[in-house]
Amino acid sequence: MTLNISPSLDVRESREFASEIKFQVPGFAGEGILDWARNRLLPDPNANGDSQNGGYQITSLYFDTEDFDVYHRKGSFGRSKYRIRRYGPTKVAFLERKLKTRGLVSKRRAAVDVSELERLQEADPDPGWPGFWYHQRLIARQLRPICQISYRRTALVAMTSHGAVRLTLDHCIQTVPLSSCAFNDSTPGTLLSAENVIVEFKFRMDMPVLFKNLVEQFGLTPQRLSKYRLAVVALGLVEPEETSLPLMDSVKPVCLNS
Fold first, then answer.
1. 158 alpha-carbon distance from chain centroid
2. What structural domains and CATH numbers belong to the chain?
3. Using 50, 70 and 90 to split pLDDT, how confident is the model at 121?
4. Using an 8 Å Cβ cutoff, are 175 and 83 in contact?
5. Which of 168, 173, 188, 241 could cross-link 151 (Cys pair, CB 3.0–4.6 Å)?
6. Alpha-carbon distance 195 to 193, whole Å?
7. What phi and psi, each to the nearest 5 degrees, are found at residue 14?
C-alpha cells in the first residue's frame, strides 16, 4: 500500500492540515529513534534516491525583507513564510507559501522548472506562468532571497485509524547566503546542526499511541524550532534574540507535507 504523503511527489496547490511536533536530539539519540521507528513504520515509498531507507536530500531557498521582518515576526510577516524547495537532484522546484491564521497553517505551492527561477528576478510577473501568484507576492512584500538551507531527511510513514502519520529525522543541516533566486550546489555550507538531529512528528487529530510511546521511551521534549531562524543567526545576518524560543506547550496544527 502506498501512503500518499510524500512531499517530493505531491504537486497539489493546497495542502491538508495536520499537527506537527519537533524535537532536537543528539546524533546518538537520533540513531536510536531511527532504529526504533524502522521496526514500527515503513520507509517513505516515494523518497528520492533511497526508497529502501526513506532517505532523500532537501534544499530550500528562503526569503525575507531588507529589515528581516520575517525573522523578527513583524506584523503579517510573522504569519507567512516564502521558500523554494527542491527534493534531491530533480529539476523541479516548488514555490511555497506557508500561512498561519489563528493557529492554523495552510500551504500553497506551484511546481516550476529550476531553470525558470530567474523569472522571479524580473520586475513584471508573467500572468501565464504557474509561479505568477508567488512572484506577485514577493514583489508586494519586498521579499528577497536570503539563504539556502540543505539537509538529509529520513522519512518513515504508517497508516493508523486516524489516517497517515509521518516521522522525519533531519541531519547534516547546512546553510549558505544567497544573492539571487538560484540553488547553490558548489559552495560549502555553514553547519547548523553540529551532531544534532531534528525529529518531527506529523499526524492528524490526536497524537497516535505510537508517537506517545516514542516520546516516553526516549524522554523527548518538544521545542519550537526554525531552520531559517537558526540559519540567519549562524550566517551573522541578524543579532540573535536574547530570549530563546519557548518549549511548545501544545501541538500546533500545520500542513502534513511541510
1. 20
2. 17-239+251-255 (3.20.100.30)
3. very high
4. no
5. 173
6. 6
7. -110, 145
